[in-house]
Structures are given as C-alpha cells and as structure tokens.
Amino acid sequence: MSEHCFEPLLKRRSIRVFKDEEVPIDLVLKAIDVARYAPSAGNRQPWRFIVIRDRSRIEALAKILKHPRPLLNAKTAVLVLANKDESPVSYMVDASLAAMYFWLALHCTGLGAVWIQTLRNVEEILEFVGAPSNYVPIGLFAIGWPGEQPVAKERKHLSEIVFLERFGEALKQ
C-alpha cells in the first residue's frame, strides 16, 4: 500500500482566510486540467469551469451568496457548472466528482480553497455568469494562498458509518 497517496487527501482543509498575494492562473488551469480526469457516467464529462479573477466581479458575486465571507478576500473564484442535458441522470454527481478532483489538485499546488454552496441561488448565479438554464452551479471555490492552517476536525468512527451487507448491520473488526 502506498501511504504517500493518502497524504493530500488527509491534509486538505477548507481554507477561508487567504494571503494578499495573486494566484497564478497557470496553477488554477493545472488544477482544472487534473479535474478533467474525474470519472463521469458514460464519460460524458458534463462539467464546465468559470474562472473569475476580476475583483469587482468577485465582490458582485459575493452579494448573491448567503455565506460569502471567504470569497471577499479570495484572489480567484472558480464556479463549477453541470450540464443537465449532457448527463440527465448523473450530472450532479459527475460534476461534484470533477469539483472534488479540482479541489484536491488545488491543494497539491499549494493553493487553498473552500467550497461555497451555490444551490440556493441557481438562477442568480447562472445569470451572473451568463450560463444557459440547462446548467446547474454545483459549487463555487474561493481560492488563494492559505492565510491559515486549520486543524483537522474530529471524524465519526468507522463503526458509525460502515455496515456489513445491510443497513444497520455492524461491521465486526
């Protein structure tokens, strides 16, 4: 077993405080390039990424959201969209997998990010970015150089979340 493969997964944290330093676009594009390799049903790849770097646009986008604070000091934002027509049954899962690949790839570049929920304001967000109504904003990432080092929060024990064969059947270890 290759333990070093687990390290980025276990060390990634949601970063909500960023340094006042520009984010190189090539690092963001590298993370998006990695996200293209996320699995999707039928390899349909129903995701799109919108990179937002203009300060006034980031501030305007923040006004649409319920919890915008991390976005307000981020240097870059990336919106992940899912195309409902390209993958009618699994678009939400497919694009969420790509978003997670993107987030992990950002972490591997040294950048920090936090996933901001976007499903409360679907129409406003689509209008803001000029996307058609057959898209759904899966998530918005506030991105920057980490200005904090959050510690890992406690996780549920495996016995609370894993069952054997049927729901409720305890896994005996």
Question: What's the SSE blueprint?
Answer:
Blueprint: H1 7-11, H2 25-35, E1 47-52, H3 55-62, H4 69-72, E2 76-83, H5 91-109, E3 112-116, H6 122-129, E4 135-144, H7 158-161
Antiparallel strand pairs: 1-2, 2-4, 3-4
Keywords:
globular, 7 helices, four-stranded antiparallel sheet, alpha+beta, 173 residues, single chain, NADH Oxidase
Structure, explained:
The structure is a single chain. The chain has 173 residues and is an alpha+beta fold. Helix content is 34%, strand content 17%. It has helices spanning 7-11, 25-35, 55-62, 69-72, 91-109, 122-129, 158-161, and strands at 47-52, 76-83, 112-116, 135-144. It has a four-stranded antiparallel β-sheet, with helices on both faces. The longest helix has 19 residues, at 91-109. GO terms for molecular function: oxidoreductase activity. Its cofactor is FMN. It comes from Thermosphaera aggregans (strain DSM 11486 / M11TL). This is Nitroreductase.
